[in-house]
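Quick question, first post here. What does this chain look like in 3D?
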Amino acid sequence: MRRELLLVFVAAVALYLPTVRYGIVQDDRAIIASNPAAHSIGAALRAFDDPYWPRETGAGLYRPVTILSYAVDWTISGGRPGWLHVMNALWHGLATVLLVMLLARWLPTLAAAAAGLVFAWHPVHVEAVSSLVGRAELLTAVGILGAVLAARRGRWALAVLCAAFAMFSKEHGVIVGVVILLDKWLLRPHPLSPSPSGRGGTNDRAYPVGFWIALGVVTIGFLAAWFAVGWAGENDAAAVFYDRGTWGRLAIALPAALRAALVLIWPASLSVDYNPQVLPARDGISIAAVLGLGVVVGVPALALWCRRRAAAISFGAGIAALSCLPTANLFFPAGVVLAERNLYLAVALPAVFVGWAATWLAARRGLRPAAVAVAILAITCGWRSLARLPAWRDNRSQLVTLLAEHPESYRAHASAAAVFAGAGDTAAARREYQRADSLFSGDRYLNGANAIFLIGIGDTAAAVPLVDRGRRSRAGERMTLRAEFLLELARGHRTGAAAIADSASRRFAREQAWYLQFRQ
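> Answer (accepted):
Ran it through. C-alpha cells below.
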C-alpha cells in the first residue's frame, strides 16, 4: 500500500504548490502577520493562555496549537508566506494519507486510494489549504484521523495525544472521541482487505477504560480552557444571527446545510463568502429550509443504514455530520453561516462514495472501466481546484473574484468600500457602503464602520441613523461606541465623548489605545 499512499500524498501536495507565490489574505494578517505570538516559538508558548484572535478584536476563540504551528514556520522561514503555504499543502497531504489508511479497513487498496485522490483534489478544499488561517482545519483533521488510527492499533497514549492536538488546534476537535466510537462501532472489515486485528489491531475487543478516562479528561480540560479564554459571548455569532431566536436562526442554518451538501456533490459554484445575500437572510420557513432539514436528518440516517451494507460510507457520513455539527448553527449560533474551509472533513463522504462506487464498478465491469471513471472524476476535480486557486492569491484577487461571482454579497461591497475609503475615493466608498447596507442592514459592525466613514467626510447627519441602529443591540458594540465617540467629538461634545471613551476602555481589552489618538 506504500505506493498508493505516496501517490495520494504527492497528488495532494502538488496541486497546491502554486500557492508558494501567494501572500497574506484577509484574516491571515490579524492572526499571523500582525500577531507577535505567531512570530516565535517562545512567544507562542507564552501566549498559550491567549485567545486565537487578538484581544483587542473581542473575537475570542482558542487555538494555541495552530498559533504554535505558525510560530514554528515563521522561525524557520523568517516569515515568508510561501513557506507557510507549502506547510499547508504538506499538512493536507498528511490528512489525505491518514484518511486512506483508515478507509483501507473496509475498501480494497485501490478503491481507498481512489477515495484519497478525490479527497486530495476536491475543490471545496481550496479555501482551507490556500488560506493560511485554514491551517486550523488541516491540523484538526490530522489530529482526529490520527487519533482514530492510533486507537485502532492500540497505541493509546498516541491516540490521546492526537486527540489533544486536534482540540487545541480548533474547537471542533472535541468530536474526536465520538469519531473513535464511530470507528469502533463499524467493526466489520471489507472481505478483500486484511483485518486490522490480524495486524495487531484491537477491533475485536473493547478499548481500555483508562483510555476513555484520559480522553475525557483532555476533552473536559480543553472545554474549560476554551470557555475561560476563547469565549467571546455574542460577538462569536455571525452578524446575520444578531437578535434572532431559535427559529430565525434555523431559517438560515437549514438552507446553509443544503448549500453545503450541494457544493460537496457538485462544486461548480463556490464562494469565499456565504453571508447575505449569497445565502439569503430569510425569516421564515422556505423550500430550501425543508430540503436542508432533509440533509440534516438524512446524513446521520445514511450512516446508520450503511453500517452493514457499506461501512466505509457509514464512516464518511458519520465524520461529515460530526465535523459540521459545531459550526452548523443548529443548536447555537457560530461565527460563520457557512465556510468552505469548515467542510474539510465533510469531503470524506463524497470521496468515500467514489471509492465504494469504484469497488462496485470493478466487480461488475472490470478494473479498467473503474479506473477510467475515477481518473475522469479526479482530473475534473483537480482542474476545478487549480482554476479556483487564484482567488486566494491576495486580498485584491479575493475581492475581485467575490464581486464578480457574487455581487449579492454585502460583505463584498463592504470590503470594496473600505478599499475605496483607504484610497481616498470617498464617492466610490460611499456608493459601496450604501450598496452593502441595501443588501443587508443588520451588521452592527458594518453600521459602525459606515458611520465612522461618514463622520470622517463631515456628513454627521447621515451617520446618526447608523449609530442609532447600532444602539439597539449589544452585538458589535465596540464599533458602535467608536462611532458614538467620533459623533460626539464632531458635535463638539468633548465631555460626552470622554465618557464614552472611558466606558469603552473599561469594557474592552486594549481599547484605550484607539481612543487616545483622538484625545491628545
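Residues 81-103 form the longest helix (23 residues).
Residues 395-519 form a domain with the Serine Threonine Protein Phosphatase 5, Tetratricopeptide repeat fold (CATH 1.25.40.10).
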